[in-house]
């Protein structure tokens, strides 16, 4: 029993380290891709074609002087970025392992629970900074995340009705012969857009509206605190890319193609950032409540009725 626990702990540790390395190179990929979109080179000085740039950035950020606002709520101000990164990393525990790491049966429920907790860290980070700009940024982020969590959960339920399970691994079994993107194309696009909104990325990055909020909820953070918020954001982008692969792109964990697909979805996140302008805030809310919510509910009823119909036919 003790040996099993040690092995599980070691597996989680390796997973977290791999995620952090992946995040480091995702930031490099983003800077390179955005550079080429804007017809410039991007980082190319540190190491061969800029490969060591993320590590030099990390050293620079974590060794910088930590500043804090005098009137801030000091404990919460320090605690929020750490909690944000912690939640983004423990989210990865529900990733299925064939070695049965912690491939538990309610992994999708775990994903929904942990991803909704990250709202609190953003809210507390904005509030504890004791700055009007950061408070406004955090309020925007909370409203946006809560709104899109509703549509995200409803879209997810349509997939769950098809597999009748809460285990991420079962998504792979049901897509052996046909991917879900073929069966439910509109829902897949809706999931992708909702994921963009959920991870606070362009064109929905209202929490970090530089034009009106200086830098949003993280405006008072510097050095390590800023780096942790940054790492958490990119870890959640990687995780949402992984979920996209599992939900509607076959989810073939054992093949190399799976990682190519994750890379493609991460690239899509960056491509959208380099291409699309920021959306208007009221339109974002209308899209969630008047667009995605009714459509996802209708799809949910459709798949539920299909399941009931098949069940009646079989019995």
UniProtKB/TrEMBL annotation:
Localization annotation: Mitochondrion inner membrane
Main subcellular localisation: mitochondrion
PANTHER family with a match to the protein in the record: NADH DEHYDROGENASE SUBUNIT 1 (PTHR11432), NADH-UBIQUINONE OXIDOREDUCTASE CHAIN 1 (PTHR11432:SF3)
Keyword Glycosyltransferase on entry: no
Catalysed conversion reaction: a ubiquinone + NADH + 5 H(+)(in) = a ubiquinol + NAD(+) + 4 H(+)(out)
Family designation: Belongs to the complex I subunit 1 family.
Known EC number: 7.1.1.2
Gene Ontology process terms (BP): aerobic respiration
Transmembrane segments: 6-26, 75-95, 107-126, 146-165, 177-197, 226-249, 256-272, 292-314
Record's function text: Core subunit of the mitochondrial membrane respiratory chain NADH dehydrogenase (Complex I) that is believed to belong to the minimal assembly required for catalysis. Complex I functions in the transfer of electrons from NADH to the respiratory chain. The immediate electron acceptor for the enzyme is believed to be ubiquinone.
GO annotations of cellular component type: mitochondrial inner membrane
Name of protein: NADH-ubiquinone oxidoreductase chain 1
Signal peptide: none
GO molecular function terms attached to this record: NADH dehydrogenase (ubiquinone) activity; NADH dehydrogenase activity
Keywords tagged on the record: Membrane, Mitochondrion, Mitochondrion inner membrane, NAD, Transmembrane, Transmembrane helix, Transport, Ubiquinone
Matching PROSITE patterns: COMPLEX1_ND1_1, COMPLEX1_ND1_2
Membrane topology per record: Multi-pass membrane protein
Leading EC class: translocase
InterPro entries reported in the protein's UniProt record: NADH_UbQ_OxRdtase_su1/FPO, NADH_UbQ_OxRdtase_su1_CS
Species per Swiss-Prot/TrEMBL record: Monochamus alternatus alternatus
